[in-house]
Amino acid sequence: MPEAKRAAVAAVQKQLGGSGKAVEVIDAQYGGLLADTASVLVPCRVYSLAGGKVVTGGTTIDVRLSRSGQSWRVTALHPAEPGSAARSLSAAARQVLASDRIILPPASAADIRSGNIHDSVLTAMLTLSETYRIGISVLRSGHPLNVFGTTRPSDHPQGRAFDTWQINGRAVVDPATPRSLITTFMQAAATAGSYNVGGPYQLAGATYFSDRTHHDHVHAGFRT
To answer: Which residues are registered as beta bridge partners of 219?
Structure first.
């Protein structure tokens, strides 16, 4: 694991752990990576160890870091704020929450329950889940407000994007994961309606992009 991610994970475990608690880090994904600054998104579950291992909650924390030489230093932690649960949800939202082929971290599930995720995103996730078992890392909360290092608003805080860290049980960042699995998933995301698909590989066409930030996950953004 790169040094920036190790520092971020350690900070999250220190922040959320403690007496009688255990922190399960689901993933550590870049929310942005520049030469001397980074955002690492850490979705996690928290367990109570008192009387047995029981899930008591979880969140996603956007950990900000700065670089000095070869070392990364944590400068801020921004926990997800999904908001209160909505009184009613769309059919697509209910289906995603009930699916055993869409693996949601706690903050992403709360995002959906809040009613703030567009149906275009949820419908695309359901379509992809017909072919793939997908591990979601982040939807809305816990993601930088702007595309990292710019003033351009990200689609995530608007409920118009999702990031996938795992496809059919294979981590996108794992060198052993077949390239074809990732590229066909990226193409399927575009077919499902995404106008902006990012990942570790640059595919042909204006819909696709690749950069340092997206070598460890697949991003799918939607206009509405």
So the answer is: 163, 198
* Of the candidates 189, 188, 196, 199, the residue with the CA atom closest to the CA atom of residue 222: 196
Task: Indicate the residue type of 48.
Answer: S
Give me the domains of the chain, ranges plus CATH numbers: 3-79 (3.10.450.50), 91-221 (3.30.1380)
Helices within the chain (DSSP H only): 3-16, 91-98, 106-113, 119-129, 179-191
Return the amino acid letter for 57: G
Task: Give, as one character, the DSSP assignment of residue 27.
Answer: -
Could you tell me the pTM of the whole model? 0.94
Show the tokens assigned to 192.
């499902």
Question: In whole angstroms, what is the distance from residue 180 CA to residue 157 CA?
Answer: 30
pLDDT digits (tens, 9 = 90+) for 45-61: 999 877 666 767 899 99
Helix (H, G, I), strand (E, B) or coil at 218: strand
Query: Measuring CA to CA, how many Å separate 129 from each of 133, 181, 188, 189?
Result: 6, 14, 10, 11
pLDDT in tens, 105-164: 999 999 999 999 999 999 999 999 999 999 999 999 999 999 999 999 999 999 999 999
69/72 Cα distance (integer angstroms): 8
